[in-house]
Specification:
single chain, about 90 residues, alpha+beta, Multidrug-efflux Transporter Regulator, Chain: A, Domain 2, 5 helices, elongated
Length: about 90
């Protein structure tokens, strides 16, 4: 038997709503769904994404991008180096 209490307060979004909320294309949302990175419930020929699932995905992505590739500090990169190129003599026509 299905426990209906867990569905009482659930709010589901369409693929279009998810795309607008995430500021990506619908195709990107479909790729995430098919890759299993974003939870979804099949609904006829379309999908519905639990709002909580989208929020968890975004939080995980935010955490992953801030911990994996932090920007280098100025001490790590050192001073900027500039190359000066002199054109030399111009060829005669």
């Amino acid at each position: 038997m299905v426990d209906l209490q867990k569905f009482e307060n659930a709010h589901y979004l369409t693929v279009t709503e998810v795309a607008l909320a995430m500021r990506v294309s619908k195709m990107t949302v479909y790729r995430l769904l098919h890759a299993g990175e974003l939870p979804a419930v099949p609904f006829g020929r379309s999908y519905r994404v639990p709002e909580e699932g989208m929020e968890e995905y975004l939080a995980a992505e935010q955490h992953a991008t801030t911990t994996v590739n932090p920007p280098p500090s100025p001490q790590q990169t050192g001073p900027a180096q500039v190359a000066v190129i002199s054109p030399g003599p111009l060829p005669l026509p």
